[in-house]
Specification:
Keywords: Cell outer membrane, Ion transport, Iron, Iron transport, Membrane, Receptor, Signal, TonB box, Transmembrane, Transmembrane beta strand, Transport. This protein is mainly β. The chain contains 5 helices and 43 strands.
Length: 760
């Protein structure tokens, strides 16, 4: 595949401008920001609209808001967005797990696609590696809940998260921010831009983010849960007049943080090692490779206004990332279940849009193309198992390569039938083609050549090379009724689609032994959702809310998993096979209630303000059918993973004038109900409900040049699990390895950060 060559040929995207609500603390930073306490504008439908007018469930955060609360990366917004899960994936520092309304995917291996689309400046990230985006130089983040296929690139069956960077200023600009905090946190973020002519400007931003570990690897002595990230972005914009805007962007990230080791939840079954007291400590001994993640991308944007009604846009992008990740599943010094892994991803995408804006008709026509390649290779060193079997250094290696070529055409238009009534119609036709190579080999003698070893080949357990293609037509319709400026009632129906693929961990010899067709054993089909939503948006005075009820009929749900395999019949699992099924069907319904109450200025003393934001999400989800790897319907046991029944948050912001500026005190309580890490609950691994308390004290100068703040996160020092591994059978015996792998990874402990920023 020649993805790199394709990037040379096209012109990219328009980065659209919108103003979002800012906290009172940030009001001094942006001209005219005081007006935005009442007016919120987003581009959820690829055009600028008031949030009040958009018949879509969308939550928007401005860059100023995120700075005011000390948000460090994209996972922070999930605390205050209903029915949304954004977490750092198990055993990694920068791979993202995303779920919206119970729909998503947590397996990062090549061949498994996301259920939530992540976008940087409208460029779709095809893989979850390097997708835990650090927040710097950001204009806004929008979270769109429900299928978005008639408007966005790919795999938005659950929803979409849009990360939009700042446009360059017409005037010379410079900003610098320094963060110093707990666990030796030291961050430096610098950005700037300059016009080289009336029509051309350049700019860039760089962030160096460091922190010591929350715990220690007691075997290697390394920090555990530390952070070393260097990220940067350079851009150039050409705008000869108000009809043409062109933007070129290059971004890069390097993450050299230590491997993230898990916390064992049970004593080891072979050596009897006890559970550690500190959940951030680990004992993993896997050190055959160092962890390193690199990602980079190039995009070029074009926005040409043809006439008063039509605008042409082009979004072209190339991205690649590579990850070296040693994962010690058993979290012990010995090699019971040690998995060093390499991920390499590359993608080229092209999108064209024709945007129409008229008196009564508004909409978009578009075409999207993606050519992507994802490769994964990992060793599974089962040394303790090999010793029992007389196979020293037993290694079950997996190599998987997946090529994706997809194209689609889409359209979405809104017509105002009357001043009060409007109807929106949209549709997307998608053609997906997937080619997969899966090579699995069993070695003795330790790690493979990918990780510095030279073992002896024992057997080839999979040598699969296949391809398949799928097509889909996904419609959308919504009706909106706005009897007055304060109210907007809407109802919508939409379909979502996520493409099929092949299990990158499948073992074809296991399929042959069971008398199952090899191709059918490896392949899994697309999943779809029929989504119904009704909502009411209200804005009047200092109060606004968005209330939504949704009902999702979710079918052919893709559920990946791995099970141990006994190839010799001696009762010992000496290898494993991936078993991915279209498990069946699920019903997901719930309610979301977001609101804002801003008391008028001078409510207390001159210039004081008090704002309250809240979000409540309820989700009731259950499987109507769940067929496991053995063909048995276990829907009475399965649950919707990574999605609590209840989520709620409240943020109170009190601002008072102080010393030629404004001082804000911001308090947030975020509650997340109990949830299961996987479809089959495990009471030891699953997380009970918990509440996080975050607080910030921020001062902004009246001229917008200076900001100083102190940010406390998780002030009650809660211990809560965000992911984990489970290779334990129902009777407590190991599913793979001999020590028993039941490990968890945790959210950040209590931290305090002081920050100072200067802008010019």
């Amino acid at each position: 595949m020649t993805i790199r060559r394709k990037v040379i040929s096209s012109a990219v995207l328009l980065a659209s401008v919108s103003w979002l609500p800012v906290t009172a603390a940030a009001a001094a930073q942006e001209a005219g920001a005081s007006e935005t306490r009442d007016v919120v504008t987003v581009t959820a439908r690829r055009r600028e609209e008031s949030l009040q007018d958009v018949p879509v469930s969308v939550t928007a955060y401005s860059g100023a808001q995120l700075e005011a609360i000390g948000a460090q990366d994209i996972t922070r917004i999930a605390q205050t967005t209903p029915n949304v899960t954004l977490e750092v994936s198990r055993g990694t520092n920068s791979t993202l797990t995303a779920f919206i309304r119970g729909i998503g995917q947590q397996d990062p291996v090549a061949g498994f696609e996301a259920g939530v689309g992540i976008y940087i400046d409208d460029v779709y990230l095809n893989r979850p590696q390097a997708a835990v985006l650090d927040i710097f130089d950001v204009e806004r983040i929008e979270v769109l809940r429900g299928p978005q296929g008639t408007l966005y690139g790919r795999n938005t069956v659950g929803g979409a998260v849009k990360y939009v960077t700042r446009r360059l200023s017409d005037e010379p600009s410079f900003s610098a921010r320094m963060n110093v905090g707990s666990y030796d946190q030291f961050d430096v973020i610098v950005s700037g831009s300059a016009p080289l002519s009336d029509a051309f400007r350049v700019g860039g931003a760089v962030a160096n983010l460091t922190r010591s570990g929350f715990g220690t690897n007691l075997t290697t002595g390394q920090d555990n849960y530390n952070k070393r990230v260097l990220a940067g972005r350079i851009s150039a914009e050409f705008e000869p007049d108000d009809r043409i805007f062109i933007r070129a962007v290059y971004d890069r990230i390097e993450d050299t943080s230590n491997p993230r080791g898990g916390h064992r939840l049970i004593p080891s079954l072979l050596t009897g090692a006890p559970v550690l007291d500190n959940v951030f400590d680990t004992r993993g001994g896997l050190d055959v490779v160092d962890q390193k993640i690199e990602g980079q991308g190039v995009s070029l944007s074009g926005d040409i206004q043809i006439n008063d009604q039509w605008t042409f846009r082009s979004i072209t992008a190339w991205r690649e990332d590579s990850s070296t990740t040693p994962i010690d599943f058993d979290s012990l010094p010995g090699a019971d279940l040690d998995v060093p892994a390499l991920y390499d991803n590359e993608q080229f995408s092209q999108e064209f849009q024709l945007v129409y804006s008229g008196d009564r008709l508004n909409g978009i026509i578009g075409a999207y193309y993606l050519d992507a390649e994802a490769s994964t290779v990992f060793d599974v060193l089962l040394a303790t198992t090999g010793d029992v079997l007389g196979l020293p250094g037993l290694n079950a290696q997996t190599f998987g390569n997946v090529e994706t070529e997809t194209w689609s055409v889409f359209a979405d238009f809104t017509y105002d039938l009357t001043p009060e009534w409007s109807v929106s119609l949209g549709a997307r036709y998608t053609s997906d083609k997937r080619a997969s190579r899966v090579l699995r080999r069993t070695y003795i003698g330790g790690f493979s050549e990918f990780f510095g070893g030279s073992p002896t080949l024992v057997a080839v357990t999979s040598d699969f090379d296949g391809s398949d293609s799928w097509t889909d037509f996904s419609p959308r319709i919504s009706v909106s009724y706005q009897p007055d400026a304060a109210n907007n009632f809407y109802a919508s129906f939409s379909q979502g689609f996520k493409g099929g693929s092949f299990d990158p961990r499948g073992q074809t010899t296991a399929a042959a032994a069971a008398g199952i067709d090899e191709f059918e054993f490896m392949r899994f089909n697309p999943e779809t959702v029929n989504a119904y939503e009704a909502g009411w948006k209200f804005t009047q005075g200092g109060y606004r809310h968005a209330l939504a009820f949704f009902y999702n009929d979710y079918t052919d749900v893709q559920v990946p998993g791995s099970i141990g395999v006994d190839t010799t019949g001696d009762g010992v699992f000496d290898t494993f096979t991936g078993v991915t099924t279209n498990a069946g069907a699920a019903t997901l319904w719930g309610i979301e209630y977001e609101g804002f109450l801003g008391l008028a200025e001078d409510a207390f003393t001159s210039g004081d303000t008090l704002d309250l934001n809240w979000a409540i999400g309820y989700l009731n989800g259950e499987y109507d059918e769940f067929i496991d790897a053995f063909g048995v319907d276990i829907s009475d046991q399965a649950v919707i993973q990574n999605t609590p029944e209840w989520m709620a948050s409240g943020t109170l912001n009190y601002t008072v004038p102080l010393s030629n500026g404004a001082l804000s005190v911001i308090n947030t309580l975020a509650y997340r109900g109990s949830y299961s890490q996987f479809e089959i609950p495990n009471p030891t691994l699953d997380q009970d409900g918990y509440t996080l308390w975050n607080a910030s004290v921020v001062w902004n100068s009246n001229d917008g040049r200076w900001q100083a703040g102190v940010h406390g996160r998780n002030l009650t020092d809660e211990r809560y699990k965000v992911s984990g591994y489970n290779f334990i059978n129902a009777d407590g015996t190991p599913n793979l390895g001999l020590e028993g792998t039941l490990t968890a990874f945790y959210g950040d402990p209590r931290t305090v950060t002081a920050t100072i920023a200067f802008r010019y």
